[in-house]
Amino acid sequence: MTDKELLQLIEQAAREGATEFDLSGKDLTALPAEIGKLTQLKKLILGKYQYNQKGYIVGTIGNNLSVLPAEIGLLNHLQELQVVANNLTSLPEEIVQLTNLETLYLSRNQLSSLPQEIVQLTNLQSLDLSRNQLSSLPQEIGKLTNLQSLDLSRNQLSSLPHDFGKLTNLQTLDLYDNQLSSLPNEIVQLVNLQTLDLYNNQLSSLPHDFGKLTNLETLNLSSNRLSSLPEEIVQLTNLETLDLSSNQLSSLPHDIVQLVNLETLDLYNNQLSSLPEEIGQLQKLRHLDLRSNPVPIPPEIWGLKELCQNPGDVSEILDLYFRVEDLS
After folding, report:
1. How many C-beta atoms lie closer than 10 Å to residue 27's C-beta?
2. What is the pLDDT of residues 6-24, one digit of tens each?
3. DSSP 3-state of 61
4. Beta strands of the chain (E only): which ranges?
5. For residue 253, is pLDDT > 90?
6. What is residue 278's predicted lDDT score, i.e. its pLDDT?
7. Which CATH number fits domain 3-324: 3.40.50.970, 3.40.50.620, 3.40.50.300, 3.80.10.10?
8. Stated pTM of the model
9. Domains of the chain: which residue ranges?
10. What span, in angstroms and rounded, lies between the C-alpha atoms of 31 and 16?
């Protein structure tokens, strides 16, 4: 799109008092100052995700913006700003004037830091910073107390601020593909978390009070360095999916039976030589992956009705053998 065409679109949107404006996929390298005229905008899209019919992300439609003009701060009615799949290396300080923002998507850019002032966007409910180059977060990120969804995946984070624990309304937290070697103890204050993804970090332990996250339904700890689990993990009685694959676990807590709502338990590629007999009491289990462990199939598994609905059915049992890959 030429500069002239872009200015014409902006002028038309200003005349019409547009509340939504989608400029994704226009090959933009710059956004003119005239964007500040669209003071009625509630939703501005400069790059977005593509979804399939099931709601899964299948691609992006972006631009080539490396900066946003200071005039972006004039759009003080904005509730949603999407700048997915661009080349942003920084954010203008004026972005903090967008105090009505509830949704901010900045995925797939080249951000290495965030302005400290971003914590003033206290109405944010959904913040997507995935696939950037962030190595740290503002120390006062805990001021974003209305956040319900935070995606920090595929960055370069090695630690989280202690204020992280103040994000008590978070329901979904994505931290996969970072460089976290530990979690702040304050993370256990995120008592409304339902989904926590820590795949592919460098965690060797979990906070002692991890069991306080009692609303967790999905927990992904795959591809870390865990050699043991805190006993308190069995307090996560709402867990439906627990992924512990590709760690260094040699045993599981005997009280794992308390995770009565587990439907999926992935233990692939650990060092388990035995399983607690109590595993046979997890009656909701539908999927159990024990491959690449030096563990025999425990007889208690045959009592898991959801996993093996017809214990006498030879095909069911053989299928389980293949999935479990008995190495005894």
Report:
1. 9
2. 999 999 999 999 999 999 9
3. strand
4. 20-22, 43-51, 57-61, 80-83, 103-105, 126-128, 149-151, 172-174, 195-197, 218-220, 241-243, 264-266, 287-289
5. no
6. 81
7. 3.80.10.10
8. 0.90
9. 3-324
10. 20
